[in-house]
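Lab intake sheet, docking and co-folding queue.

SAMPLE TYPE: protein with bound small molecule
LIGAND NAME: zinc ion
LIGAND FORMAT: SMILES
REQUESTED OUTPUT: full 3D complex as structure tokens
PRIORITY: normal
SUBMITTED BY: R.K., bench team

The fields below were copied directly from the construct record.
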Amino acid sequence: MSNEMSIIFLGTSSAPPQSNRKQSAMVVKYKSHTLLFDIGEATQYQMIDQKIKFTKLTIILTHLHSDHTLGLMGLLITRNFRNIKTPITIIGPVWTSNFVSLLFLAYRFKPEYEVKIIETSGGKILENKDFVLDSFPITHSDTSFGYRLVTKPKRRKFNVEKATKMNVPRGEMWKKLQNGISVEINGKIISPSDVLDKVDENNLKIVITGDTPFDEKVIDFAKNADLLVHDATYPPYEEERARKYLHSTCIDAAQVAKKAKVKRLIMTHISELHKNLEESLRDSREIFSNCEFAEDGLRIKLKPKD
Ligand SMILES: [Zn+2]
Ligand SMILES: [Zn+2]
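RESULT FIELD (auto-filled):
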């Protein structure tokens, strides 16, 4: 299976509706996993447009503000209409479980599939053979979390032919080499790289802040990430407003990217107050050149380097 990761931006607007941008939602596809970060009002429509399946999905909420959660019930109800029986997992901050139960009660909704809820208060949330997902607190709402997804590099394959050729006896020695330990045979050192085929050794690290003001914590968490998706609600001249409402300007986002030495920055949660997005982008690029504003429908691909 390909080790390429796809990121699809479904909604890139701040809360008030705009004609060309929908509210926050972003999909990360990696191997057999589809992770949906936030689920703003129009998310299920955007998913249909972008051909994202409703079946196998993990929903991850950065926080419970309405512009990040209004699409949740729509999507869950549609799954009943479509007779989808696969379970769904919803990850979110403390109160997510109550939040979902209250919505079900309000709509008299009974899902015909299992709904699993994981509440995070920071730290590791999920680990499987393909990736580790963890979260860190953000100063935005009562309980907001940023998320970090780190893929696991493929295990290097043991080359039986090479080992046989080098007269490495099967058993204990093979095991050692597979576990990265050198062995000695008749005075000759055989190192793991002699018998393990080279595969992609690096992982991918992406960080999604959700709504956030400029925050040193994000810099720590996003260190050397391949991709940082950061709040850039306001243009440079709205700094005061950004501080007041606990959001970022596009300058804040660029500064975090620069300090964290990430490889690439995508700025999202864009307000109409950006009168001239090109100017905002120019200002950001003066600080951190490899950055861009997200657009609804923007797709990017990441691949680990050899
Ligand atoms: Zn928001
Ligand atoms: Zn918010």
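REVIEWER NOTE: The longest strand covers residues 131-138.
SIGN-OFF: pending second check by T.M.
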